[in-house]
Amino acid sequence: MSKILHIDEGILFEDKSLSLKELVIKHKANLKGAYLSNIDLSGFDLSRANLRRADFSYTNLEGADLSGADLGGASFRDANLEYADFRWAYLEYASFRDANLEYADFRDANLEYADFRGANLSSADFRWAYLDGAKFSNKDDFLEAIGVIIEEKND
């Protein structure tokens, strides 16, 4: 019925008595490389979880708590992350391409080299976030985001 595949270690968690949501909760401490695409995880507490290189493409994570989680290299392509909490999360090289990040909270998060191209950043909070090398479609992406100061380079 449900399973979580850990790509890196080749581990397959399978338990016919648990739903996929219950498996996520049970194994949240180590879901490195998990394929969690196209499911509803709205409101889930995934704080401090190891979710490196996890695939959340097309997943509904509205209002989810991902604070302090290790999400380096994770994919959130086309995901709904409205009101998601990413405070103090490690998101280096994460992809948020075409994701809905309206009202998402990235305060104090490490977003080095993260990809936000095509994402909806309306009212997303980036105060004190580390954005070195992050990719955006253009500077207008930040017009409605909070806590971002755009510096023009004079070459």
Features:
155 residues; little secondary structure; Pectate Lyase C-like; disordered N terminus
Written account of the structure:
The chain has one domain: E3 ubiquitin-protein ligase SopA (Pectate Lyase C-like). A hairpin with a 4-residue loop joins β1 (3-6) and β2 (11-14). The protein contains one helix and two strands. With 155 residues, the chain is low in regular secondary structure. It has a two-stranded antiparallel sheet.
Strand content: 5-15%
Strand count: 2
Q: Indicate the CATH architecture.
A: 3 Solenoid
User: Biggest sheet, in brief?
Assistant: 2 strands, antiparallel
Span from first to last CA?
58 Å
Helical content band: under 10%
Indicate how many domains the architecture comprises.
Answer: 1
Structure classification: little secondary structure
**Number of helical stretches of at least 4 residues:** 1
- Mean pLDDT over all positions: 83
Question: Which residues form runs of ≥5 with pLDDT under 50?
Answer: 1-13
Molecular shape: globular
Give the CATH level 1 class: Mainly Beta
Secondary-structure map:
Blueprint: E1 3-6, E2 11-14, H1 20-26
Antiparallel strand pairs: 1-2
In short:
The chain has 155 residues and is low in regular secondary structure. The protein has one helix and two strands.
